[in-house]
Specification:
single chain; alpha/beta
Amino acid sequence: MQNECILFIDQHEPLELVSLLKTSQNVVIAPLNAQGKADYLWQDIAGNTRQWERKQIAEILSDLDAVEEQVNSQLSMADEQGLIIEGVARPSANGVMTFKHHSMGEFCAQLKTRAEHWCLGHMFERQSSLWARWEGWKWGMRMAGIIVIETVSMEMTAH
């Protein structure tokens, strides 16, 4: 990597997010995941490499073990490892409910509207202990030295 400020982004990341990041960063699209690296990688001014994996909350909740294994496998690929958890969820009586944000103009088939709103995403039912496991999982990731940041949207992730 060069000493100039370049943000490397995996080729499978959403173009919308890449466009948001290009407004403030020099961006290079690269096959990071194929090289065993996280979704975002850069070198700071001290020469340390920093990488961040970005996951949707429903993706993580569907298989906590697989995501943990993936992030742990990336630890040796950079000096700093982070995890961005994108989305909104809350516990329910028998599991966890996730929510999806629809921007103004984006059609929502569930509510049949183009107004900006949040609607129900995926329901993780018959898993009453999932929320407690989720909170413990995030704590464990932090104790392993992985920085965990939670955002509610792609725009918040870009900021």
